[in-house]
Design goal:
Layout lengths: L2 H20 L7 H8 L4 H6 L16 E4 L13 H10 L9 E5 L9 H13 L4 E5 L12 E2 L12 E5 L1 E3 L7 H4 L5 E5 L2 E2 L3 E3 L5 E5 L2 E2 L4 E3 L5 E5 L7 E3 L6 E5 L9 H4 L2 H4 L43 H4 L6 H4 L5 E5 L5 H7 L10 E4 L9 H8 L6 E5 L28 E7 L4 H11 L7 E7 L2 E6 L3
Parallel strand pairs: 1-2, 2-3, 3-5, 4-6, 5-7, 6-8, 7-10, 8-11, 9-12, 10-13, 12-14, 13-15, 15-16, 16-17, 17-18, 18-19, 19-20
Antiparallel strand pairs: 20-21
Length: about 475
């Protein structure tokens, strides 16, 4: 062999070896590479086949398919998207199980339609999908033209454990027959959905999240094995609850103005739909923890000069429907967060038949418990004998006029929380109620060193121990 050829071949081999050594990513196991692909859209996953020989067939067994297309994605997506998805399913490795499908309704004419979406969901279920996340669009949401509609989707699976629906229209028996359709379902997340079903019933459900859902009927939730509940800012109706004996953690955030007839008149669709289409599995719901007030931009149609809620003794108590047994259903929980404005109707109404919270260790209460004499707060503490941590979230820029009466009367002013080792009060810097609260706790055996105050000063929290 010619010497120059031999030398060139040796150099070529060295270059190839150098490339292999530099490509350390390809040396990772399939499971880890598939995890990296979780952060890519489906079309981006397919394009990894050109990276190296090692990646050539990895996409055919990826456990997660993210088919969500945003407006700014269209320059990168395949030209014939339905055909691309059909080929994607056709060429998947036969033995590869699909774990997760993320799908978004199209907001571009001709991209894909509801029939395509239903077909892909059925295919994912046949492949044993454990997680399905379906996202509609908030655009034109008043007309429902961009909402994901599920009444014609065959959601029947013994494998599905997690179902996340955003901007979806839910009617008929989709939610009412979860136990029979999805017997293994453990987590249900409903975000900005429109619900006209009368019941959510599931014996397997462990986690239920309802975030800013429009509820058009008296919705009842029956989930005896539910462990975690988050009901945040329901609209039109508050759900009622029954048979939740296994609950450990509960978050309830209510605003009375969302249950009034004038709500839709006073809010533009952009203000009402302020969440994004894009899912973020690691994002916690932003409830402005520590302030007990509606999110910024809300309240524009609420005509109360002093920003108090409805009078519990007024006729509004009869106008606001739903929310039955909210506190009773939470009675076995160890951690509760109950946030609302002053005079809020539903929580105050249910407080009148307040059960004992014998398991409760951590409690967060909002402005609704801060009536003039703190009667609602005392009443709650009298029913929580094993409480260890208490968070009080007072409304910022509180008006010094006398708040409305809560409608409940405690048995005296004393309470016995022998295990309470921390009281954290968050409020405006000039809120004089802090001193009254400190006196109340001190009178019931809670020393000053267990009372912490967090003042909001120039949009920054300043924390310190209470010292009189």
């Amino acid at each position: 062999m010619h010497p120059k050829v031999t030398k060139r071949s040796s150099a070529s081999r060295r270059r190839e070896r150098g490339v292999r050594e530099a490509d350390r990513l390809s040396t990772l196991p399939d499971a880890l590479l598939h995890h990296i692909m979780l952060f890519l859209k489906a079309w981006e996953v397919v394009r990894t086949c050109v990276l190296a020989r090692r990646w050539r067939h990895l996409w055919t067994s990826v456990p997660c398919l993210d088919l969500r297309v945003r407006e700014d994605d269209h320059t990168n997506t395949p030209e014939d998207f339905p055909e691309f998805v059909s080929l994607l399913f056709l060429h998947r490795e036969a033995s590869a199980r699909l774990d997760t499908l993320r799908l978004q309704s199209s907001n571009v004419d001709g991209a894909h339609d509801e029939e395509d979406a239903r077909l892909w969901i059925r295919t994912a279920i046949k492949l044993g999908a454990r997680v399905i996340h379906l996202v509609g669009h908030r655009r034109d949401w008043f007309r429902g033209s961009r909402l994901a509609q599920l009444e014609h989707v065959s959601l029947v699976s013994s494998h599905l454990k997690i179902l996340k629906l955003s901007y979806a229209l839910l009617r008929g028996n989709i939610l009412e027959q979860l136990s029979s359709y999805l017997p293994s379902l453990e987590e249900l997340e409903l975000k900005d959905c429109f619900i006209s079903a009368c019941e959510i019933s599931s014996a397997s459900l462990k986690i239920l999240v309802m975030f800013k859902c429009d509820i058009f009927v008296n919705l009842s939730v029956a989930a005896p094995n539910l462990v975690l509940l988050r009901c945040i800012s329901p609209i039109a109706h508050a759900p009622s609850f029954q048979n939740m004996r296994s609950l450990v953690t509960g978050t309830i955030i209510l605003y009375d103005y969302a249950f009034t007839d004038s709500f839709y008149k006073d809010f533009s669709k952009d203000e009402l739909c302020e969440t994004t289409d894009e899912d973020d599995d690691n994002q916690r719901y932003k409830t402005r923890h520590g302030f007990g007030v509606p999110p910024e931009g809300y309240g524009l149609g609420y005509n109360d000069d002093y920003n108090y809620g409805s009078d519990i003794d007024s006729d509004d108590d009869n106008k606001i429907e739903g929310g039955r047994n909210i506190l009773q259903s939470l009675s076995n929980a160890t951690s509760l967060e109950l946030l609302a404005d002053a005079g809020e109707v539903i929580l105050n109404r249910e407080l009148k038949s307040c059960p004992s919270f014998s398991n409760l260790k951590m409690l967060s209460l909002g402005e609704w418990c801060m009536d003039a004499e703190f009667n609602a707060l005392i009443f709650f503490l009298q029913h929580s004998p094993n409480l260890e941590k208490l968070f009080l979230e007072l409304k910022l820029n509180f008006n010094t006029r006398k708040p409305l009466d809560s409608g409940v009367k405690p048995k005296g002013r004393s309470f016995a929380c022998k295990h309470l080792w921390m009281v954290n009060i968050k409020c405006s810097e000039d809120d004089a109620r802090v001193h009254k609260l400190a006196h109340l706790f001190r009178a019931n055996g809670i020393p000053d060193e267990k009372i912490f105050v967090s003042y909001l000063r120039d949009k920054k929290i300043t924390e310190f121990w209470w010292e009189d």
